[in-house]
Amino acid sequence: MKSSAIFRIRFLTIIIFLAALFFVARLFFVQVIRHEYYNDLADKQYLRPSTNVFDRGNIFSLTKDGKQISMATLKTAYIVAINPMIMTEPDKVYTKLSTIIPLDKDEFIKKATKVGDTYEEIAVKIEQDKADLISALKIKGLSLYKQKLRFYPGERSACHVIGLMGYKGDDYEGRYGLEKYYNEMLSRKEDVSFANFFVEIFSGLGKAMTDKQDMAEANITTSLEPTVQKFFEEKLAETKTKWQADGIGGVIIDPKTGEIFSMAYLPDFNPSEKQTDLATLINPLVQNSYEMGSIIKPLTVAAGLDAGVVTASTTYNDTGCITLNKKKICNYDLKARGVIPVKEVLNQSLNLGATFVEQKIGKEKFRKYMVAYGLNEKTGIDLPGEVTGDLRNFLTSPREVESATASFGQGIAMTPIETARALCTLGNGGYLIEPHIVKKIDYLNKISRDIKPKIIRQVLTKETSARITKMLTIVVDTKLANGKAKLEHYSVAAKTGTAQMSNPNGGGYYQDRYLHSFFGYFPAYNPRFLIFMYMLYPKGVKYASETLTMPFLDTTKFLINYYQVPPDR
């Protein structure tokens, strides 16, 4: 009997404990997890009847000091509506309203005089100050209803990364950029239940380790640094204007972790406005591919060093031009250099030098290196619509000429983000990393997940990475801008690239259109930043050394000062 009584007491205690836990969890759910949602419901008298409460997660950037800055959020605006059944003197109402908000008189009168109609919207997205003025008019038959709108405080800043909202059928959801890639996380389900939350409370820790958690509601914080983003965008805009280029873009990335501090492209758009040119909405850094030219030469030389077939002092006879498979290949200036060491391939940007290294490696082995650099695969960056580069001719052709031209960046196309990632291997010890935009995910069940760096594979040895870095540092110290680009207390490794642009209509290449590119990383032997820039068809100039050297150096000096990078020499 005694044991039976003890059992009943314990059973009752457990029931009371579970009930108390249920109510505590319920209170936490209402007041913390779904506070904004229920606050909107409590404000229902200000909402348009028969409409849902629009809600969506936030996208943040992160300052160097760890402060979150809103990149995409919600703001409250108002719908102005009328009830034609009870509104009198529509002409006078129009006169009063038109002094506050722009209205088409004929359209207003048409709506205000509809017979049997009780609801007509006459204006949407009205700001608070104007809504207050309208409310003060106290017009019979006129109402204000709250609406929540997607709001982008930075307007055009990082627009290709953030993306925008749009309708897909009847659903209003993310259509480009992070808004699309993380749409499931950013979306808020109207029918979210406490029962689902209660399950998450007991299983959340385990669930956070599964793919299913990635479908949970969350806010996201990016690695984009707002001050860096602003500076880089201004520098790109200034450069585009100066050279009247068709387009310009770039990325600043940590070559060791893959975190992206800035990504930008011009022309851009304002995600809060109605879009008229859909072509500007895609992100060319992940969705377009280009022939990059001479910035590929360091990858070729690094492969030669890594394969052990050349050293910096290995010599070859530079004749200015050679013929392979009846195709003539020449240096950019058609000049022969005679017998010179391989280090001059980068110092003087010699096409024949890159071809020499490729031939020493051997066609098949060279192909394996280029594939290992990730130039024929998606990087895995957390942005939608990523495409891969086009190495088909290079990988399948039995001819020598395709491998030769690929060695100096012609005849193969790659996306800018693929290119930047491949170039990171030169300075980070030879590792191919996965670039990423989002740094942290904060789920609504109060579980957070930091995005960890991901190494795909090792392409080059650390020794090769150090050797190619030394060669690229010599380029900056002695050749770039005739040695004037050298920074006294900082080692910088860099290379320019100029490529003929392919003609999509007639085949072959334009004779007067070039793609300019530039990359560099610093401090060279322990890099914190890699900067990659490219520009489409700048006018009145041929070489990237003339157009992108100063923007690169300005950005380098800004980052050194802003992050207070200690000198390394």
- Which class best fits the helix and strand makeup? alpha+beta
Helix content: 25-40%
CATH class of the domain at 226-268 and 284-562: Alpha Beta
| Count of strand segments | 20
Structural shape: globular
What amount of the residues lies in strands? 15-25%
Say which CATH homologous superfamily of the domain at 226-268 and 284-562 is assigned: DD-peptidase/beta-lactamase superfamily
Structure write-up:
The protein is an alpha+beta fold and 569 residues long. Strands 1, 2, 3, 4, 7, 15 and 16 form a seven-stranded mixed sheet that branches. The chain has a five-stranded antiparallel sheet with strand order 9-8-20-19-18, with helices on both faces. The protein has a two-stranded antiparallel ribbon with strand order 5-6. The termini are far apart. Among the domains are: 2-33; 226-268 and 284-562, 3-Layer(aba) Sandwich (Beta-lactamase), CATH 3.40.710. It is globular and about 95 Å long. Helix 1 (2-33) packs across helix 9 (194-207) and helix 14 crosses helix 17 (400-407). It contains 21 helices and 20 strands. The longest helix is centred in the N-terminal third of the chain and has 32 residues, at 2-33.
List the helices and strands and how they pair.
Blueprint (H helix, E strand, L loop, with lengths): L1 H32 L1 H8 L16 E4 L5 E15 L7 H9 L6 H8 L7 E7 L1 H9 L5 E10 L7 H4 L2 E4 L2 E4 L2 H5 L1 H4 L7 H14 L10 E5 L3 H18 L3 E7 L6 E7 L17 H4 L9 H11 L7 E4 L2 E4 L2 E4 L7 E4 L1 H5 L3 H11 L1 H10 L19 H5 L3 H8 L8 H12 L3 E3 L4 E6 L4 E3 L4 E4 L3 H18 L13 E10 L6 E14 L6 E8 L7 H4 L1 H14 L7
Parallel strand pairs: 1-7
Antiparallel strand pairs: 1-2, 2-3, 2-4, 5-6, 7-15, 8-9, 8-20, 10-13, 11-12, 14-17, 15-16, 18-19, 19-20
